[in-house]
Amino acid sequence: MTELIARRARVTAFYLCLVILAVIFSGPLGWLILTSLKAPNELSVFPVQLLPSVPQWHNYIDAITFIDFLGYARNSLILSTLSAVLTTISSAWMAYGFARLSAPGKKFWFGLLISTMMMPGIITLIPTYLMFAKAGLVDTYVPWILWGLSGAAFMIFLFRQFFTGIPKELEEAAILDGCGHVRIFWQIFLPQSGPMLAACMVLTFTAAWGDFIAPSLLLSSDRTTLAVAMTAGYVNEKGFPVQNLLAAGSTLFILPVLMMFLFFQRFFVQGFSTSGLK
Fold it and tell me: Where primarily located (predicted)?
């Protein structure tokens, strides 16, 4: 009986800690939503007013009309989808080579690829911009196509871990039937990697959707993304930020990523668990 009570106490304490952590980590999101529903005069009062007196639901409509919200969102959607699809497929293709093909120095090149994850991407920003500027690719979507085709080291690692766990008998049977490596990849390996595809799509889409530095450097104002446009768009005639509209726009900004994660949540978790077990 005493052991049962102690076990229940441990379980209760564990879930209580989870609830506390959930409240802490969801606090900024809750504050963002509350701010988006406040009137302008409620943002500067002291002491701070936690709840809005009357929820200003029209702030969301004003946030959409204050800037070309839908136009910038379209740009973000194009870039994010392009980046997610190309990066996921190219990373899976490269991972198939590392997992299944034999080549001299394969382990060395894979280790060199993984080591690039320790290098901050910011240090290549200026050389990358100069390279695209000299090639005349600034203010186009070509850089995102090239980045997508080059894959991502972390995604390649995840796919390789997953592919090494696929039975070799499937590959050998396909080879006996006359299949080449391209067909084996597209018809055997890729269909079985659904959870990994979903996980990598969500991660890549989220990174591209929230990216600020690359679009601000490489795209003009009319082709820029929503993340860049929001930073300078929600200002009044005096140049001060309109906090409630910025909060409303930010709330709308995170909805696509949140919906995508909720839709692929089962595959997202399954993808990471299976890649870790292989």
Answer: membrane
Q: Are 278 and 165 in contact (CB under 8 A)?
A: yes
Q: Is the pLDDT of residue 276 over 50?
A: no
Q: Is the domain of 200 the same as that of 256?
A: yes
Cα 58 to Cα 46, 55, 62, 168, 227: the distances in Å are 24, 9, 6, 59, 21
Question: Tokens representing 185?
Answer: 């990849």
Residue 121 lies in a domain: yes
The backbone torsions φ and ψ at residue 241, rounded to the nearest 5 degrees and listed phi first, read -70, 140
Q: At what angle do helices 265-277 and 194-209 cross, to 10 degrees?
A: 110
Q: How many other β-carbons are positioned within 10 Å of the β-carbon of residue 122?
A: 8
Q: Whats the size of the chain, residue-wise?
A: 278
Q: Where residue 270 falls among pLDDT bands split at 50, 70, 90?
A: low
Tokens representing 223 are 């082709």
Cut 0.70: pTM above it: yes
Are the C-beta atoms of residues 234 and 67 closer than 8 Å to each other?
yes
Alpha-carbon distance of 232 to 217, in angstroms, equals 14
Distance (Å, whole) CA 176 – CA 250: 55
**pLDDT-based confidence at residue 222 (cuts at 50, 70, 90):** confident
Same domain? For 73 and 32 the reply is no
189: Cβ–Cβ under 8 A, 6 or more apart, which residues? 92, 96, 100, 163, 166
Whether residues 135 and 227 share a domain: the answer is yes
Find the CATH number of the domain harbouring 242. 1.10.3720.10
Residues spanned by the domain of 197: 68-277
Contact indicator for 270, 88 with CB cutoff of 8 Å:
no
